[in-house]
Amino acid sequence: MMLFRDRKNLALVDRSGLREPDGFTLIEVMVAASIMIILCVGVLSVFSFAVQINAGNNLREQALTVLQKEVEYYRSLKYVPNQTQTDPALVAGTYTRPDRTSEDGTVFHISVQITNVSIDTTETGCTLKQIKVTATPAVQRSGWLANLHTDVTFQRVRSN
Q1: Distances, alpha carbon 74 to alpha carbons 58, 90, 104, in Å
Q2: What is the spatial distance between Cα 97 and Cα 55, in angstroms, rounded to a whole number?
Q3: Contacts by residues 80-83 (CB-CB < 8 Å, ≥ 24 positions apart)
Q4: Cα diameter, the chain
């Protein structure tokens, strides 16, 4: 089959006078649509995953701001070797502190665990304490954020 140019329409025609079809076939359109659907599903799943990760990072950041306030509270307490001058909040044990609200309004439950880690572990002879503060969101989240808790551990040496 030889193709010739039609002088009027500038289209390719064969000797029988029939025009060559313009555009795409149905199969080509279906293949292109399938590829586009696969790409869109992939992009949307990555976008959804990124949104979840950002939500978790935001929650952790808010917890860290609350924990920073708690750490500053425990750093400000008076701690000397004998029990009568040491602040009662620094006695070894596990405590529940009042709930704290972050800047964006998220409420966190705060728990504190104080451990004597010096050679003499009695309250009067202890010179080093390890303090672990944990923040857990008051409102439970779904998915992997359900078990999210953020904690900070620091050590406190006696004052002079």
Answers
A1: 25, 8, 24
A2: 25
A3: 80/158, 80/159, 80/160, 81/124, 81/125, 81/126, 81/127, 81/158, 82/124, 83/123, 83/124
A4: 112
C-alpha to C-alpha distance for 123 and 84, rounded to whole angstroms:
10
Tokens of 71: 């750490």
SS3 154: strand
Task: Indicate left, alpha or beta for 105 from its phi (over 0: left) and psi (-120 to 50: alpha).
Answer: left
The phi, psi pair for 119, rounded to 5°, reads -60, -45
Q: What local confidence, expressed as pLDDT, does residue 123 receive?
A: 78
Contact criterion met (CB below 8 Å) for 111 and 138:
no
Q: What is the pLDDT of residue 84?
A: 63
* 55-100 confidence digits (pLDDT tens): 888 889 999 999 999 999 988 888 876 656 678 888 889 999 999 9
